[in-house]
Amino acid sequence: MIAIPRNPSLCPGVKFPKDPAIVVVCPTNSIEQQMEQNMAKLGIHALMINSDTVTAARIRSEDLWKKAREGISMLILGPEQLISKGFQDLLKCEAFYDRVCDLGVDKIHLLAMWGLGFRKAFTQIGFMWARFCAGIPIIGLTATLLADPTIADAIFDFPILFRTLYSGIDGLYFPELVWVLRNSDKTLIFGATISLVFRIKIYLDSQCAEDVDRDLRIRVYHSINWPEENLETIELFKSNPGCQIIVCTNGLAQGNDISAVRTVIQVGEPESAEMFIQKPGRAGLNAENPRAIFYISALWVAKAIKIISQSDAENAVMRTAVL
Hints:
This protein has 323 residues and is α/β, with parallel strands linked by helices. It folds into 2 domains: 3-141, 3-Layer(aba) Sandwich (Rossmann fold), CATH 3.40.50; 149-301, Rossmann fold (3-Layer(aba) Sandwich). It has helices at 3-6, 29-41, 51-59, 64-67, 79-82, 85-91, 94-97, 110-113, 125-129, 149-156, 194-207, 214-217, 227-239, 273-278, 298-309, 312-322; strands spanning 21-25, 46-49, 74-77, 100-106, 138-141, 160-165, 187-190, 218-221, 245-248, 263-267, 291-297. It has a 6-stranded parallel sheet, with helices on both faces. Strands 2-3-1-4-5 form a 5-stranded parallel sheet.
């Protein structure tokens, strides 16, 4: 984009502004800093704007948002800065607005993993993109998806939602799940232990109307059941409209393609990255608007917020202590 305005013969018929710019959204300050340094090595004028650089610039009486208006080829922001008043005012500047050619998002998988959890700003990227000049492309990058197209489909073909579990996972009450009984979606509810599966089943039974056949509507699937009973559960779920919910352990997360599933729910943190991928993949084979919902305990949400708010040095000390 920088080269073509200087030498149109490189790509006849394609036009870019004389001073083109790209806006890049990064998830952390350290990634922003690395990108700014790498761009400088390539001779590209990049500017990183985050809470730290804004504060430092203010001390030296410099306005980074004004600096970004002209001469900066790559503006590097976090999602919080993208939705800030500073950036909104920058878009109102015609000199900047007219030269923006692209919006890039690094680590785009975090839109699902963080955006619907503790960093809501990630979910606003699409809305901010709509404020750019019409036709501006958006490019999303990630290097952390497994090289299996079915896994990418499992992540991006339907929403993955993160909700806070305020009930104690060792308790007997799960009011966050009552909404499942208010609709007819075919639903899998995963619990990490057989004990949790039983407690969720008992609680949901207690919330059903008196005239409901609880043992048909809400089934359980786990290794203590006889194999014939588990097979009967799957067949009822597939063929009987009255069988709506299976509360299950991980045994149903692998290799069981039940096409009727619309909603997959995990109560508690996924045991591994593999389980994070596998469980959402149980939904959506033939269902309309499938979805996966992870109920994460308030304690773990607080821990995650603490981790991302710490400096790289503090996190390195924590990792060393764990090892």
